[in-house]
Amino acid sequence: MNKQNKAEKIVQHMLEIDEFSRWLGIEVIEIKPGFAKIKMKVRKEMLNGFGTTHGGITFSLADSALAFSSNNYGRIAVALETSIAFPKPVYEGDELTAAAEEQSKGNSVGFYNVTVTNQHNVKVGIFRGTVYRTKKEFLTE
Questions:
Q1: Which of 1, 21, 44, 72 is deepest in the core (most CB within 10 A)?
Q2: SS3 sequence, the chain?
Q3: Which CATH number goes with the domain that contains 26?
């Protein structure tokens, strides 16, 4: 199996068993080794007391993109540190897209940037994540 097929198979399996990402309504747009692009639509139950989307929703979408991009080589990676900025608000009905791009991948640590945009291509989340790459393999053949 080549790296591309392996990455796609791993992410497909991850999404099948990830109840929270499925609850969010995440759909995979594109997967490449070290890269993931996913999307979701904001629903009413995702709003906070001010009528905008709870920041945890945008964070969770970015976090799922981080997980899909950092794990799709086959070694299990876990988040060590993450941060997010919210440059613009998100509203009910917005369609969010998160693109996670690997910046650096070492033997044990990886660094990723995730950009979250709305349907108008406006940045609504800027996320950075550092992962620890364990020695454990995921979906070994």
A1: 72
A2: CCHHHHHHHHHHHHHHHCHHHHHHCCEEEEEECCEEEEEEECCHHHECCCCCECHHHHHHHHHHHHHHHHHCCCEEEEEEEEEEECCCCCCCCCEEEEEEEEEEECCCEEEEEEEEECCCCCEEEEEEEEEEEEEEECCCC
A3: 3.10.129.10
